[in-house]
């Protein structure tokens, strides 16, 4: 049986660190409130010149280097992002050109924070179908440029970054064991960016109404996220006939430490087996899971043979999980 296997990862975050204390000078908030309610202590923010493809390029180049691959070895590039460089061409096409990956098809996936796992679902499916054999999957976001820095309920949450994975066809008994994706568009108004598309094209009015920034009903989203993720992780393990104790590491989307703790509690998993870096980067949407995966691999938290569960929840609404055997 052929399946996809992640053979290398890479990640990149901008140099500029913005702490909670920095944000105390921008909006009416406090380090204590942000830390207690979210687990975030700081986030990385791009400079004015950096765009999403620049971050994606750094993460992808590192993954290629670690795999000893040349860009021409790749036959498909998928970029998961809700903050593309521009409406079109896709950020994946811009990345393809920058890398010189001339043998690759390229497209973007828009599933907000679940985007990387959506991309993994697509990549693995195409590999299993025999359509592609070497896929570069990147989750990359520059949320800071669509964040309303006057809105204390959202601006404390987000950060910029990128994570990449190289996925190769294998006949080995390891790799992507299962993926699951789902959505509920009826709750699309919980997290959205209303301006700048064909519904509300960019105009003086959309700017004045601040429609060109992320809007989120945080508390409602929180409740749906906790309930959905608890069901999702239980279902993913059951589908794979696994007991939570057989999992070596849970890598959740880094949106809120309280959501992560609730999911771990539902699984009965000790927090030592849950990867967290939300304190350093905040919520980087589609980049969150691959950055965490890369840091887990590089720090030796994942060993050959380990079962690793990825999960995410985000705008759409969307949610997704993937079970990996490393
Ligand atoms: N500093 C100080 N006080 C604040 C701040 C702040 N930055 N933000 C809100 N408050 C206040 C509110 O005004 C409110 O005050 P009130 O009680 O006087 O009205 C109080 O704090 C509580 O506000 P809540 O919104 O109820 O706070 P909550 O505990 O829900 O935390 C948060 C808010 C952190 C946003 C949380 O709801 C959350 O994490 N939601 C889920 C986010 C998520 O998972 N999103 C999905 C992915 S994002 C994507 O897809 C792009």
Topology of this protein?
Elements: E1 3-12, E2 17-19, H1 20-24, H2 31-38, E3 42-44, H3 52-67, E4 76-80, H4 91-99, E5 105-109, H5 115-128, E6 134-142, H6 152-155, E7 160-170, E8 175-183, E9 191-192, H7 204-208, E10 215-216, H8 218-239, E11 249-252, H9 257-267, H10 278-281, H11 288-298, E12 307-314, E13 318-325
Parallel strand pairs: 4-5, 4-6, 11-12
Antiparallel strand pairs: 1-7, 2-3, 6-7, 8-13, 9-10, 12-13
Tell me about this structure:
It is a single chain. This protein has 11 helices and 13 strands. The chain folds into 2 domains: 170 residues, Peroxisomal Thiolase, Chain A, domain 1; 149 residues, Thiolase/Chalcone synthase (Peroxisomal Thiolase, Chain A, domain 1, 3-Layer(aba) Sandwich). The radius of gyration is 19 Å and the shape is globular. Strands 1-7-6-4-5 form a 5-stranded mixed sheet, sandwiched between helices. The protein is of the alpha/beta class. It starts with a strand and ends with a strand. It binds acetyl coenzyme *A. The site of acetyl coenzyme *A (ACO) has 24 residues, from helix 2, helix 6, helix 8 and strand 12.
In short:
Helices cover 33% and strands 24% of the residues. The protein is α/β, with parallel strands linked by helices. Helix 8 runs parallel beside helix 9.
Indicate the low-confidence ranges by residue numbers. Answer: none
CATH level-1 class of the largest domain? Alpha Beta
- Assign the CATH superfamily of the largest domain: Thiolase/Chalcone synthase
Distance between the termini: 17 Å
**Pairing-aware structural class of the strands and helices?**
alpha/beta
Could you state the order of secondary-structure elements as H and E? EEHHEHEHEHEHEEEHEHEHHHEE
The rough form would be described as globular
Strand content: 15-25%
| Quantity of strands, as a count | 13
Q: What Rg, in angstroms, do the CA atoms define?
A: 19 Å
Number of spatially distinct domains: 2
- Estimated helix fraction: 25-40%
